[in-house]
Amino acid sequence: MKSVIDQIRGHRSIRAYSDQPISPEQLDAILAAAQQAPSSSFLQAVSIIRITDKVLREQIMHLAAEQPYITAAAEFLLFCADFNRHVQIVPEAKTGFVEQLLIGATDAAMMGQNALVAAESLGLGGVYIGAVRNHPAEIGQLLGLPELVIPLFGLCLGYPAQDPQIKPRLPRGLVVHENQYQPVNQVLLDQYDDEMRAYYASRASNNKDQSWTSQIRSILGKEARPFMLGYLQQQGYCKK
Length: 240
Hints:
It is an enzyme of class 1 (oxidoreductase). One of its GO terms (molecular function) is oxidoreductase activity. The chain is α+β, with helices and mostly antiparallel strands and about 240 residues long. The chain has helices at about 5-10, 25-35, 55-65, 70, 85-90, 100-120, 135-145, 170-175, 185-200, 210-220, 230-235; strands spanning about 45-50, 75-80, 125-130, 150-160. The chain has a four-stranded antiparallel sheet, with helices on both faces. It starts with a helix and ends in a 6-residue tail after the last helix.
């Protein structure tokens, strides 16, 4: 059995799955681990929607950048920030604050990571699906998400049918600062760009000649879901 640290450091996103199902006992353990994540002020401001309906999965797949593993995975879990539950319990609750969105997003991220780590400890693999935010309103309509419930990300889970390489992360010196924020160390960045070029060139599939700098230049050189603020306000968030 791997240690927890070895398991976490060995994480790879899995996008191809066998037909083997996840047992009810395994799913229960994964969801229990997710719920045990820390929660800001113990608000527990997250709902998880398990998508078992094949038609719904297909519809979500088309709305989430046509990623086929959404329908191929044994399980697909949708993590949502949720303050609607609180309003049902306490109708006079004050909502609409940006801080509440941050709480919901932070809590959901920790729950999602707990779920994935638990799944990997059982021999499963998974991949997060941020593309559910491409069409959040449409997905919300499909799933009947009320005000103050928004889809943040999906999580595909299943038994791996691939063995991808581990993708190199940024050097520690570009991520961890001591006491004061430090500017980018260009030498370390150049070394990392070279490492990423070598990684992409050596992959068994989807080879490309790309550095990390060129990747973020491409991603951050275009608008990032400019409709999102309007959608969040429509759902009752970020009004104050």
